[in-house]
Amino acid sequence: MHIEGFGGRGGFGRRPALVVVDMTLGFTAQDSPLACDLEGQVANIQRLLRSAREVGIPVVFTTVAYKESDKLTAAAFIDKVPALLTLEAGSRWADVDPRISPLASEPVLNKLFASAFFGTPLSSLLTAAGVDTLIVCGASTSGCVRATVVDALQHGFRPIVPHDAVGDRNQRAHEANLYDIDAKYGDVVPTKDVLKYLEEVGAAHAR
What tens digit of pLDDT does each residue of 18-34 get? Predict the structure, then answer.
C-alpha cells in the first residue's frame, strides 16, 4: 500500500557506518525468553560485517545488560517487559553472539532502553567519524531497531535498514514496522543493495 507523500527515498550518503543492534545471546539463543528467529539474519549480518571491515567504515555493536543499580533507571521499561530481567549484567545473555563477534576496535555500547542512541555515546561517535549514513541491522525490528532508526533520523543521519538483516519474534510486527520505517524514517532495502553500496564506497576511498 502506497500513500501519496510518504515513502520518499532518503538515499545513501558518502560516509556510512554499521550498527549491529542487540545481536546478543539473549535474543539469538532459542532457550532465551527474549529469543527471535534470527538464523537467516545472522548470515546476512556476517556478510555486512565482512564488507564493512574490508571498506574500513565504523562498526558499532549494542547490547542490553542491567546491573542492580540500572534496574531503578529502567524500572518502567522492565515493568512493561519483565523478560528484560533475563539480561543481567555479566550473564551470557548480554554477550554478542560469537558468530558475529566484535573486533577489539569495534565499540560495544550498553543501553538500558530501546534506542541505540538513548543514554549512549553513539551520536558523538558517529559525528566524530563524519558519518552521514547509518546502516541498522539486528533485533528486534519492532523494538530496538525501529527506535534506533527513528533516533538516527532525528540526529541527522540517513538510516538504511537491510530488511533481511533485521528480525523479530513476531512476523506481523516485523512486516508492519518495516512498512512504517520505509514510509517515514529510513530506506528499507535488501542486504545485497547495501553490499553493492559498500563496494562503491570502497572503490571511492581507493581513488
Answer: 999 999 999 999 999 99
Question: Which residue out of 87, 144, 152, 166 is catalytically annotated?
Answer: 144
The answer for 88, left when phi > 0, alpha when psi is -120 to 50, beta otherwise, is: beta
**Tell me: the pLDDT tens digits for 135-152?**
999 999 999 999 999 999
For residue 187, give the DSSP letter: E
C-alpha to C-alpha distance for 49 and 13, rounded to whole angstroms: 19
The 3-state secondary structure of 2-70, one letter per residue: CCCCCCCCCCCCCCEEEEEECCEHHHHCCCCCCCCCCHHHHHHHHHHHHHHHHHCCCEEEEEECECCCH
What number of other Cβ atoms are within 10 A of residue 185's Cβ? Answer: 19
Among 202, 174, 114, 112, residue whose Cα is nearest residue 150? 114
- The answer to whether residue 137 is catalytic is no
